DNA-binding transcriptional regulator (Magnetospirillum sulfuroxidans), 214 residues
Amino acid sequence: MARTKTYKSNVKAAIHETAQGLLEAGLIDKHTMRRFDQSCLTPVRKFTADEIRALREREQVSQTVFAMYLNVTKDSVSQWERGDKRPAGPACKLLSIVAEKGLSAIA
Amino acid sequence: MARTKTYKSNVKAAIHETAQGLLEAGLIDKHTMRRFDQSCLTPVRKFTADEIRALREREQVSQTVFAMYLNVTKDSVSQWERGDKRPAGPACKLLSIVAEKGLSAIA
DNA sequence: TTGAAATATAGAACCAGGTTCTACATATTT
DNA sequence: AAATATGTAGAACCTGGTTCTATATTTCAA
């Protein structure tokens, strides 16, 4: 497409270009996202019980300390690692951040 | 207290010194946290509906985009800002990070 | 070695957070 | 004018997150 529009239009174009993939993948809801500042959201992985445990052990912290970083109870971490329960949306986001950037990213 | 113990003991001492405050404040559970690596956890604030809205508007994003960053649905963000529901542990942690470091910190 | 603290498992019960859906109301763009 | 983006509203559902108790093992200090 030709880039001869106003600044806002270019931003909008950039938005759609970067987000359209997510949209088509069904990862985000239908419309929206004007002014989506250029940054690309890191995709949020799903974590198995073992992956969560491996992640925590990689960071060399106990369940209790790990829980403190995530602002969750130690029981929740235990339940995740045992496969008793699975982390929800925000918790998965935090786990993704830790997986990619380490615990210090959410200190 | 005298600092004449081994390295591990000093670490432990540092742990207790930094975490004892939280412990005494009743913010963390009883014992624990050996090897708490020196970093200090940023305290997780509680957010009112208005604060959440102000935070989002400060970042200049729509509810939908804000929700994407937090890995939550746009409805949840709307419910938070209306006071219909309140963000839980992990969600509050993410909000705290955004409040202090901006949206880019969780991109 | 003895005891206290740290760490992790297990299960149960409860509540509210997060999801999904629909419908409606305004802007804002094209 | 038509289409899109944005936000409100409410309801229903489900499970995540909390809290509690109890138990087992390990680690550490006296």
